[in-house]
Write a structure and sequence with these properties.
Elements: H1 3-15, H2 36-42, E1 52-59, E2 66-67, E3 75-77, H3 79-92, E4 96-102, H4 121-133, E5 138-142, H5 165-182, E6 186-189, H6 196-206, E7 213-220, H7 227-232, H8 252-264, E8 268-272, H9 278-287, E9 292-295, H10 298-309, H11 315-328, E10 333-335, H12 339-346
Parallel strand pairs: 1-3, 1-4, 1-10, 4-5, 5-6, 6-7, 7-8, 8-9, 9-10
Antiparallel strand pairs: 2-3
Length: 347
């Protein structure tokens, strides 16, 4: 049967009120799924080690790495184990490393002063990474005060207990300059203060740090999936951060945040969390003029890990599928705690 004959038959059947499916030579998309080689040839989305960034935690006072109870397989590192894990990640081909510092409880204070101290744990860790692997990867720093404040908020507080946006910007600039000095290539502005990208960009430029880039957390939502991360960084937070992180109910708001960050000089923008916000990631990717990142956060990691430990899902398959979905939604690269392991799988 020719295509014309098939069309005539279909029209006749439709005119008679019958629903008929005519399979023509053009109606077999399954042909291109038949073998792994064919599927690889026509894959629309790629997942490569260079598109993965490993978040890492370095904790003050540790002699040995300490596993995070709610994130099996993820560790708070000592300085020595941080170096070793960084070398392993870079050897596997990961695109970058994002470092978080975990100070000792007694070193926290209302202003998070250790965040900007040259000998603070985060800045020591950044120097260690820059010395060990800095020429072969992108060293990124978390530029936020929450790990360092005794109240656990992402900024300094006013007398009434609210976060003082403008006073916090001054602290962010101090922190950014210390991180740039320590060797960070990109600064991750995760605090969600209004004007944070512009303030940090101006501060860096005034200090001659024009080559230090800003990875702006353009869309960061107040998510229930951050729970394990609070353990990872030893958070002191009481309450929540809903007055400055975005409401999960809102979508258009993310575009406003994106446009502000781009206007203030962001070099890369990020959506966080990833898996529950793929619509936001798609929106941001469609509108961004700079690269877009997404953060597969602690709760997303722990959900898949827990289900796999119980034998409910295939671990490797679920990990790679989740990362591919984030890439398909528009992320140029993904921050994931599986970066090193997934890179080995993909190599």
């Amino acid at each position: 049967m020719t295509r014309a004959t098939a069309a005539e038959a279909l029209a006749t059947a439709a005119g008679a009120g019958r629903i008929v499916r005519i399979m023509t030579a053009m109606d077999r998309p399954r042909r291109l799924r038949r073998t792994p080689a064919l599927r690889r040839l026509v894959a629309e989305t790629t997942l490569e080690p260079r598109q993965l960034v490993l978040p890492m935690f370095v904790a003050d006072g540790l002699a040995e790495p300490r596993e995070i109870g709610s994130m099996p397989g993820v560790y708070q590192h000592s300085m020595d184990s941080l170096r070793k894990a960084a070398v392993e990640a870079v050897t596997a081909g990961v695109g970058g490393l994002m470092l978080f510092g975990v100070p000792r409880p007694e070193d926290k204070d209302p202003s998070g002063s250790q965040a900007a101290a040259p000998d603070g744990i985060l800045n020591r860790g950044l120097r260690a990474l820059a010395d060990e692997v800095g020429d072969s990867t992108v060293v990124m720093a978390d530029t936020c005060l929450d790990e360092f404040t005794d109240h656990g908020h992402c900024g300094v507080l006013s007398a009434d207990g609210s976060v003082d946006n403008d006073a916090t910007l001054d602290r962010y600039v101090e922190m950014a300059l210390a991180q740039a000095e320590a060797g960070a290539d990109l600064l991750g502005t995760s605090g969600m203060m209004d004007g944070q990208v512009g303030a940090i960009r101006a501060g860096l430029d005034a200090a001659g740090r024009t080559d230090t880039g800003i990875l702006a957390y353009a869309a960061k939502y107040a998510s229930a999936f951050y729970g394990p991360f609070r353990e990872a960084v030893g958070s002191s937070l009481q309450g929540d951060r809903r007055t400055y992180q975005q409401d999960p109910a809102n979508r258009r708001e993310s575009i406003r945040e994106l446009e502000l960050d781009l206007a203030e000089g962001a070099d890369i923008v990020m959506v966080k969390p990833a898996m529950s916000y793929l619509d936001i990631l798609r929106d941001v990717s469609d509108r961004s003029s700079v690269p877009v990142a997404a953060y597969q956060i602690s709760g997303e990691y722990s959900m898949i890990t827990a289900a796999a430990q119980r034998g409910w899902i295939d671990r490797r398959g679920a990990v790679l599928e989740s990362l591919l979905g984030i890439r398909r939604a528009g992320a140029d690269f993904v921050l994931t705690y599986w970066a090193t392991e997934a890179s080995h799988w993909l190599s």
